[in-house]
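User: Can you predict the 3D structure for this chain?
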Amino acid sequence: MDILEQKRRVIATAIIAVVLTGIVIAAIVATPLINQLHSQASRSAGNVADAKTQNIQAILDQHQDLARQTASRSELGRVMSEYVNGNLAVGVARTFSRPRLEDAANIIDNLAALIRYDASGEELVRVGPLAASLPGKITLPGGLDFREYRLANGETSKPLLHASGAIMHDGERVGTDLLLFDLSPLQGALLTNTWSNICILDDARTRRVELDPITQMPEVFPASECLTASERLTGDKQPRTFKLTDPDGASVLAFMRPLGDYNWEVHMNSQVSEVYAQVTNDIIISIAIIALLSLVAGLVVWRSLQPLMHALVSQTSEIARSTEELRLAHQVFEHTQEAIAICKTDFTIVRANPAFLDRAQTTARELSGRNMMEFLDAGNQDRDPVGERLHRQLIAEGAWQGEIWLRNPKGEVFPNLLTVSAVRNNQGQISQYILTFSDISERVKNEKQMARLAHYDQLTGLPNRAALENYLQQAIEQARRSNGHFALMFLDLDKFKPVNDTHGHPVGDELLRVVAKRLKHCMRSGDIVGRTGGDEFVVITGPLNGDDGARHIAEKMIATLNEVFQIQGHTIGIGASVGIALYPDNGMTAEDLMREADSAMYRVKAGGRNNLAYA
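Assistant: Here is the predicted structure, written as structure tokens:
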């Protein structure tokens, strides 16, 4: 055998060995890669199921909270207690309840009916768009539920969400408010892609709530058609994830999630082929790359007699790849919507992209050599958001993220989410910082709007019940520390109901807005006036030097409300009954003061109205 044949055999053997080695490596690498990618895909699908469940539970919690709020008024508890104890006729209880329920029904968007029951479960009054069409007797559900009813016209109603709130007085249940809602808020939460399915299934496995495939609206169906109806959550209601086969023989990934304390669960199914579709593509690409690398390695062996050419080719390829990466990085830096700046370790700006220049309203020439601290404002945080403490954190962890305000040359500031990343040199020392600014102006605006909606009455703009409770607790703490005095006043408008009945609710709403303005003009700088609902207002005074200070404020409010109102062309006269509780004479807790002020107000009501009374 000549030397050339031996060389060919050696080269052929080396090429085969390299290729086989690549195949073995591909198999070894692919196995954990497949498991890892499958796990990631399953977790991603599970995160979707968790997000859907959280969305559905938030909607259910919101409607349950509406039921509790409707039943939580102290005046309602007192009236229902008197009715339950036989001190109040049923007609009076109904007369009291109906206008208040109608007011509540008018401000709840998707309310179908609102029904009030006494302590024995007998219905007192019902209001709402479907109140007259629903059956004459509707039993109270044991908890949050979905039901359908035969309407007066013979048709079946759409499924209705049932949420109830207990009416309490002195720790005793004296009645129940049942709110029936249409399911339109659940439509978006139940909407999925074509290869997934989601439903809400009851614990008893008798019913499920799911989008109708034709109308795409939530409907109640038998639970037997749910693929996972036979499965159960564990005793501690831990989420479950498992695989099943659907009636068509397709493999599906099933997710079961509990809905908090409700007797319902969220079941979501996704076709395995779709969940793992991208995973399969990634695996094929990875194996193809490894196989290609094996062939390349074989060619390298074959070309081993030309090492210089191979080295030059490899070097050229590496340079081209690096050049392409640099080009792509440059394109991202120049065209991304995120503002990016590169700084030295002392935060002297080295370079900034066009998005930063636009947001900071400056130019590259003006920016050269300036320090980033000139553009940052910490708002309510430390005045030095990237000072020594932050510098130590960047050295230890290599990154920092927080909210700051970006200031332009005009002095205007805009909220941003700042991410600071450290760039280290070959010795591991920090050489530069990369600062990325994400505009969060819309989010901050929405957060402020949400905070206002949560603490202020939408009709009058006054603090609502939740805000007043906070103000009252703050006033108590301040008075306790300073050994001071203040007054809590409950004000109820006299002759307000006839205004609604005679002129309509728009006139009544406008009257409440004008009343709120007049009451604010009666307040001192440290006094607070708010509205708890209906025609009821609450005043928390600032520190008082004596009891006469509270009387002066109350008399001033009564006098200004006795002046006639001109509302939408109508001349309207009303009055006000004011109950006053003094801290600490009439109570040292919020509950005691509210109870005493409420009681004093009702004494004024009983004694002829349009006056004031101390507890």
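Residues 488 and 540 are 5 Å apart (CA to CA). The first helix runs from residue 3 to 70.
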